Amino acid sequence: MIRLEKRPQPSQLWTVLTPVMAVLLTMIMGGILFAILGANPFEAIRTIFWDPIFSAQFASYSRPQLLIKAGPLILIAIGLSIGFRAGIWNIGAEGQYIMGAICGAAAGLAFYPSDSALIFPLMIVAGALGGWAWAMIPAILKTKYGTNEILVSLMLVYVAQTLLGSAATGLLRNPEGMNFPGSRNFKQWDAAHNAELIAGTGMHWGVVFAFVAVIGAYVLLSRHILGFNIRLTGEAPRAARFAGVNPARIILICLGLSGLLAGSAGLFEVAGPAGQISIDFNSGYGFTAIIVAFLGRLHPVGILLAGLLMALTYIGGELAQLMLGLPGASIQLFQGMLLFFLLAMDVFVNFRLRWGKREAA
């Protein structure tokens, strides 16, 4: 008989091993999946994880893309991780990301074609506030009426997607775009363009903000009383109440920070790599960031590394589709496996396997 036995303390060894084991199992099962689809599994794994960085044929394009893809994932995941640490489950970062892009783009387009240096900073503030305001909806509903933030934040994603389609075809549509859906292209407007800071590196202001968020989250969680209260709320809610921690305040702060960072990520994306508001602007970064947060063990430095790894799967997945003819859905399934195996292996952090009959009480 095989059974799980509760550990007296979480295993530090398994805490470190779990992400590594999850990545290895994902490679193995992903290889089997690719073999079933008719591709060479070893070639597919190499294309996803090796070629984007080390292949001379693709590296000149892929290396800058690594930072471009990783920036929004890290920025959103940092915000999510702060809430997750407190036991507050914001699943609607995708909606906050979309609303940040819409609000930031609208703020910039309101001053078109001005060349003022204040346009882009204004867009950053508007994008961050747009994501924050969208996150405040589940926050206020939870604190005032006890609603479930998981369901409310998730349902708001679909509302945001509807508003995105409405903005792209209506309010923010380019009046000179011959009735095609989509806003003006920010890449053609220097005052509002989130351009590369160093040509050919993929480094733009969104990536800089992501690195700053990593440092800020580390200081907050490890050196500040607020970070201690957030961790205490997640690990020992009763102790937090006895210590005088206001749970409503923690909910508002955590969801607000999540929305703020997700909205900022949306603005940096729409003003930079994406270039415009379009009906298909949302790319699933808000949902993928959940995988990044857990793969990074909810630790800022871990999230930085996990964001780079997940960005690598995006770029490598695109190469695999192009070079090996793999369907896009298989790459999404491959990414989903990573979260599945991570959660499965997480069991061994708190439990150990035991063989033999259970002793009578």
Automatic annotation (TrEMBL):
Q: Where, subcellularly, is it found?
A: Cell membrane
Name the major location: membrane
Under the GO molecular function aspect, what terms does this record hold? transmembrane transporter activity
GO CC annotation: plasma membrane
Concerning Pfam families, the annotation shows:
BPD_transp_2
**Where do the coiled-coil regions begin and end?**
none
Q: Where are the transmembrane segments?
A: 12-37, 66-84, 96-112, 118-141, 150-172, 203-221, 250-271, 277-296, 303-324, 330-349
The way it spans or sits in the membrane comes to: Multi-pass membrane protein
User: Could you tell me the keywords of this UniProt record?
Assistant: Cell membrane, Membrane, Transmembrane, Transmembrane helix
Protein name, please?
Branched-chain amino acid transport system / permease component
Source organism per UniProt = Maliponia aquimaris
